[in-house]
From TrEMBL:
Protein name in the entry: Peptide/nickel transport system substrate-binding protein
Subcellular location: Periplasm
Highest taxon, organism lineage: Bacteria
Family indicated by similarity: Belongs to the bacterial solute-binding protein 5 family.
Organism: Bosea psychrotolerans
């Protein structure tokens, strides 16, 4: 029996199982795409941590439906005539989950911790930013030169924590999860590998303006939200159909027709932006500290093969011909894209010319994530076809996240490559594109060093207009295909599935829990 037939049969058979009582109308049961291994969205870059972060913490600004930053925790700001001093005032009524009022020192300390880990924060600090407070309601950011992306930065996953928590070293994990957002994290119920739970923050004060994407009113309609970890995709789909779960973040594409055909469930594509699938590469150690070898891998990559492995007969959920920037957004271009030839014969010749000596390449694969788990075998086969000695290691996503931080060689527990993805807004332009950075060991996992890329990025930030930015983006993509900081595998759009009585979903690539409610 084919894999997709087996999964479909398992899911269809499970429909007959008795459903749990849904009498608790104020409870939402959610099946996440991965286990919440670490709930610190500053320390880690995992999507599941960001999903958790938007529930628990608020942000100073947020993107609206036009992808423009609007005040969220902030009531408003003033900018000096020389554009060097930004003065922000908090809105009234902000309270942390422990009952303490949100103060300007909480924002300043949180922003400083965030700025050490996020590209836009690092960029802001490079403009000489100095943060100070003026009482409990006002904080100021003073610059040495104008920074036009200030509000975009403060809307970029800049989660606000109490000062005592935000003082944690950004390269260490927090252990206290008191938040400022619409839901409280119930730490005592958090069981890694099993699930987590959240309760509505009774004293959270939503903005009074209409919701527009992430901006505006964030209203918690459920008293309690439970995350249920179910790595088996057929079991997860069955739980949704029987009513044991209300929302399945990432249904297996093979099972979408069944979910569409069940009147109790529906499939949604809330995602209008997508994500870029990519292979992260360890540039510190053999075999992939060899640029010529990496160019050989690029030459062998067939983006369509990766996308079809994950999305099968759902072509509306993916796109190919994808470079290093998000397809369909302003910096998208075709410069150098021809290197993605899917030419195995040429790639094998390039491997021979690269000086590759047969070193073992450890490819980490997350077995508990449907999409990334589908990418990994295709990458393993691609590497094997061109003569690379592949050690394909399957683990859960939480373990992979822990291991990817190791800068040791593979003989000492390190790694060579893993398949991952970045949401489209996170790689839409050079200011936010973390995997494109060339800052070595100070950068994203893989740690490529590329001073020329950093110079181009600086030029892009200082560019006078959009046309100039686009030209620089083309040069950056050409350089990326030469030095290969990562390998783009294609772009895909997230389908999600939910019980038919849920409404109010925010059109965002990943789950947003405020404003979702049950009809009837």
């Amino acid at each position: 029996m084919r894999r997709r037939d087996f999964l479909a049969a398992a899911a269809a058979t499970a429909i007959a199982r008795p459903a749990l009582s849904q009498s608790r109308q104020r409870v939402l049961r959610f099946i996440p795409q991965a286990d919440l291994a670490n709930p610190d969205p500053i320390w880690t870059t995992t999507t599941v941590a960001y999903n958790h972060g938007f529930m628990v913490w608020d942000t100073p600004y947020a993107l609206d439906a036009n992808y423009l930053p609007r005040p969220q925790m902030v009531a408003g700001h003033e900018l000096s005539d020389d554009k060097l001093t930004w003065r922000f005032t908090l809105r009234d009524g902000l309270v942390f989950h422990d009952g303490e009022p949100v103060r300007s020192i909480d924002l300043v300390t949180s922003i400083l911790r965030w700025a050490k880990r996020r590209p836009l924060g690092q960029l802001m600090m490079s403009f000489g930013a100095e943060l100070t407070t003026e009482g409990d309601k006002v904080f100021t950011i003073r610059l040495k030169k104008p920074f036009g992306l200030m509000l975009n930065a403060l809307a970029d996953y800049c989660f606000i924590m109490p000062e005592r928590i935000a003082r944690t070293d950004p390269f260490k994990q927090i252990s206290d999860y008191v938040g400022s957002g619409p839901y409280r994290f119930l730490r005592d119920e958090w069981k890694p590998g099993a699930g987590a739970a959240y309760a509505r923050h009774e004293r959270y004060l939503p903005r009074q303006d209409e919701t527009s994407l992430l901006a505006g009113a964030r209203i918690a309609h459920f008293d309690r939200i439970e995350w249920l970890v179910m790595p088996d995709p057929a079991s997860a789909a069955a739980a949704l159909q029987t009513g044991e779960a209300d929302w399945l973040e990432s249904p297996l594409p093979d099972l979408l027709p069944i979910l569409r055909g069940n009147p109790a469930t529906r499939v949604l594509r809330n995602d209008r932006i997508g994500a870029i699938g990519m292979a992260a590469i360890n540039h510190l150690h053999p075999p992939f500290n060899n640029r010529k070898l990496l160019q050989a891998v690029l030459t062998a990559v067939d983006q369509k093969e990766f996308m079809q492995a994950a999305f099968n007969n759902e072509p509306e959920l993916f796109a190919t011909g994808v470079g290093v920037f998000t397809k369909g957004l302003p910096m998208d271009n075709d410069e150098g894209i021809g290197i993605l030839k899917a030419d195995v014969a040429l790639a094998k010749k390039m491997v021979a010319e690269s000086g590759y000596k047969g070193e073992r390449a450890v490819l980490m694969a997350p077995g508990d994530q449907a999409v990334l788990g589908a990418f990994a075998p295709v990458m393993a086969a691609t590497l094997e076809r061109i003569g690379i000695n592949v050690d394909h290691v399957t683990t859960d996503w939480g373990t992979l996240v822990q291991r990817r931080s190791s800068q040791e060689p593979v003989e000492k527990g390190g790694w060579s490559m893993f398949c991952t993805s970045y949401t489209g807004l996170s790689v839409m332009d050079p200011a936010v594109h973390l995997p494109l950075r060339g800052t070595g060991k100070a950068g994203w996992f893989g740690w490529p060093t590329d001073p020329d890329m950093e110079k181009l990025r600086d030029s892009w930030i200082d560019a006078p207009d959009l046309a100039a930015q686009k030209q620089i983006a083309r040069r950056m993509q050409a350089l990326a295909f030469e030095n290969v900081p990562f390998i783009p595998l294609g772009q895909y759009y997230f389908a999600t599935a939910a019980r038919a009585d849920l409404t109010g979903f925010v059109p965002w690539p990943t789950p947003i829990f405020w404003n979702v409610r049950r009809s009837g």
